[in-house]
Hints:
Blueprint: H1 2-15, E1 18-22, E2 25-30, E3 36-41, E4 47-53, H2 64-71, E5 77-83, E6 109-112, E7 115-118, E8 121-129, E9 134-147, E10 151-155, E11 157-158, E12 168-171, E13 179-180, E14 186-191, E15 194-200, E16 204-205, E17 212-216, H3 218-226, E18 237-245, H4 251-254, E19 257-262, E20 266-269, E21 272-273, E22 291-299, E23 304-311, H5 313-322, E24 325-330, E25 339-341, E26 344-347, E27 355-361, H6 382-393, H7 411-425, H8 428-436, H9 442-447, H10 457-465, H11 485-499, H12 521-529, H13 548-557
Parallel strand pairs: 11-12
Antiparallel strand pairs: 1-2, 2-3, 3-23, 4-27, 5-25, 5-27, 6-7, 6-19, 8-9, 8-19, 9-10, 9-18, 12-17, 13-16, 14-15, 14-17, 20-21, 20-24, 22-23, 22-24, 25-26
Helix pairs in contact: 6-13, 7-10, 7-13, 11-12
Amino acid sequence: MLRRILSLAIAFIMLFAVTVSVCGTNSGSLSIGKGGNFVEIPMTGTIGAEITLGSGSVNKDMAAAEHMTAASKLKGKVIASVNGALFNAYYDAKTILSFPSNCARTYGVIIQNGQSVKGAGTAPLLAFTSDGKALIDRVKVNVSMTLRRKDTVGIWGVNDYYTDAASVVLITPECGYSVALQTGAVVVHIKNAAVVSVEENAASAFCAAGEKLVIYNSGAWANSLKYSIQPKIGNSAEITTTLTPDRTENQADWNKVVTAVGVNPWLLQGGKDVFDQNGTMEAKMAKDYTAQRTFAAVKADGTLLIGETSGTFASIIAYLQSQGYVDAIALDGGASSMLNAGGTYKQSAGRKLTNVLHIVDYGSASALPKQTANPDIVTPDNWAVGFIDTAYSQGLVPSGFDLAAKQNITRAEFCQLCYKYLETVLDPADLTRRLNSCGISYRDAEASFTDIGNDCHNAIVQAYRLNIVSGKGGGKFDSFASITREEAATMLSKLGDMLGFEYVRESTEFPDAAEFSSYAPGFIDKTYRYGMMDGTNTGFNSKGYFTKEQAITVFVKILP
């Protein structure tokens, strides 16, 4: 028994050959395999992490020193830096670089500001939350786009591109390269969480700063048309990343993740060796293969360990278990291995790196990085609050209407408001009389369009029967398109005519009248004279869109 105690004590001394403590952070050398180093960091509630990318791209690399220079510009004190997800280090730098075949393409997952900039699917992750926790687990990374706060489109990958006809991928500025596309691909350009253009049959796509691209291959686009979930210019398009851990009891913490990096192999979960759950690994990634490795682990009390060693995964796992670490993940290894503690390299990288994870003490909990949220399209502007309250009190808002106040209203939703207004201001018998005498049956009106589906179906049909709205031609109503200001003026002027509105002001000359569609000038003039719509700072802005709060305001203003 004494011999066993002595051997364990010697092993402990060998594992921690040198230990230095600075401000609660311990660093020292390891005697795993051929040696190594570690940094142990108590997660005090003021510590988080950020990732630097090679020239701002997940597919470009730069020297470790350049990553450290970039890290020096971060707010807070950098405690430790380590290489992150593995990447293609064997591209031909002497020829023209291209994505995906000849570049420093990153594999695995990288999350910044709560959003994936590389990868989707299931992978082990090392993550950091907005309240200063370090987490490790196997996690399902789900990226999706929600159109009009209603229809959700699954994203296959982020800054990856697939040739499968049914694929939908997200390309962000972090891709860093032009992407060659399959025949029939459609590129949806998104800025500020709204669709700004839809480019069909594009041969290639490049994502500029300030935008995101959702690329549909031909089959996926055909399905979007078939099931009426296609994006339309002006629609809200909210892109989100959700993380679902194996241990769902920790979901609340994973909902707060700001920064994460992940790639196989997974080492520990709940103190148990889970290496075999990685599946078949290549020879150099086998459990008993000796190589330079970097890794991260977390104790039950939240303490984080970043380490590097020349050893086997088996020896790393055994060491971590002996020290009470419960969750662990391997990072990239080989010549990519790099560990910097407090500005000193404990292990220097043998090549340029696409991504480096920096552990940072921000000094206070309030200074920790936060998730980047989509723009708030729900909360009304101050000027609109009173009008919206009145609309609800007067029964002008249809049941189930999604009042995301600053979201552009669709053609179908505008019909919904129009018809609800008629139901509010007209006696039911009068409305029925008008419908019965309109000259077109409900069934014939339905048959006029092939694309109205169930969304605001009755309101569209009845508005069409009353000659308030017309279609786009070819049997199309285009329900999900965001209504333009000149289209809204057209419908409102017809509504005013039907109800016998009187002019309340004289005509005006809008400075952008040359931009009106050929059908629009008379309707715009009449709507202005009825007092329904005003101009903007630059004119009437006929091709601009109408938000829901603007639309509701109009109907409140024209109440009897």
